[in-house]
Amino acid sequence: MKPILLVAVMLVAMGCETSAPQSQPKAPPPSPKATPPTEAEKKAFAETKASAERGVAASQVNLGLKYEKGQGVEQDSAQALAWFTKAAEQNVPFAKIAQFYLGMKYYKGQGVEQDYAQALAWFTRAAEQNEPRAQFYLGAMYELGEGTDEDKVRSLAWLLLAARQGEKNAIKIISFAKVSMTREQIDQAKALSEKLLKK
């Protein structure tokens, strides 16, 4: 059954970025062709940048997204990475969103060299703060052995945590993950997810 799970995880993890909960910034879809920013976009960019430069993590994430997608400014992956990093290194609740976006950049090799170990590190930081999309990607990475050894128990534990928070892709592949596991492994994963939840 492993090939079925591998295909399911790969399709979900590589092919679709999960949707952000409403309280978190959502990356806009890329524009079909570069058009000069409107005055309103320029103003919004300037306001976001001023707030980001004052150290507001939410603004730093939003500024990173503006650079990533070229909203109100020319697209610049290096600047996006820099602003995501500034936000991710702060000890504030919103940092987990930036940590997730950094994990995605390293996982997919967007603007940086693909580096599963770095992706795993950033996803772990975000997942430990209950970021469900990061928990899903950790589950997928442990299942596939990307950036770490393959670990079905740890994989299922992270997927269960993500599913608890309504992460749709985690919900979709949990049953596939369980098919190739023993009852003992499933029980271990459930216990580990409870332990991780209490951290």
Give me the secondary-structure topology.
Blueprint: H1 2-15, H2 39-53, H3 57-69, H4 77-88, H5 95-108, H6 116-127, H7 132-144, H8 152-164, H9 168-179, H10 183-198
Helix pairs in contact: 1-7, 1-9, 2-3, 3-4, 4-5, 5-6, 6-7, 7-8, 8-9, 8-10
Walkthrough of the structure:
The protein is mainly alpha-helical. The protein has a single domain, classed as Serine Threonine Protein Phosphatase 5, Tetratricopeptide repeat (Alpha Horseshoe), CATH 1.25.40.10. The protein has helices at residues 2-15, 39-53, 57-69, 77-88, 95-108, 116-127, 132-144, 152-164, 168-179, 183-198. Helix 7 (132-144) packs antiparallel against helix 8 (152-164). The longest helix is centred in the C-terminal third of the chain and has 16 residues, at 183-198. The chain is elongated, with a radius of gyration of 18 Å. The two termini are 32 Å apart. Residues 16-28 have low confidence and may be disordered.
Protein traits:
single chain; 199 residues; mainly alpha; Serine Threonine Protein Phosphatase 5, Tetratricopeptide repeat; 10 helices; 0% strand; elongated
- Major β-sheet, in short? none
Task: Provide the helix percentage.
Answer: 55-70%
Number of strands: 0
Write down the domain tally.
1
CATH class (first level) name: Mainly Alpha
Low-confidence stretches: 16-28
Whole-angstrom Rg = 18 Å
CATH topology group? Serine Threonine Protein Phosphatase 5, Tetratricopeptide repeat
- Measure the end-to-end span: 32 Å
> What is the beta-strand fraction?
under 5%
Q: Mind telling me the CATH superfamily name? A: Tetratricopeptide repeat domain
Helix-strand pattern, N to C?
HHHHHHHHHH
Please tell me the overall pLDDT: 86
Work out the helix count. 10
Structural class category: mainly alpha
| Cα shape | elongated
CATH-derived architecture: Alpha Horseshoe
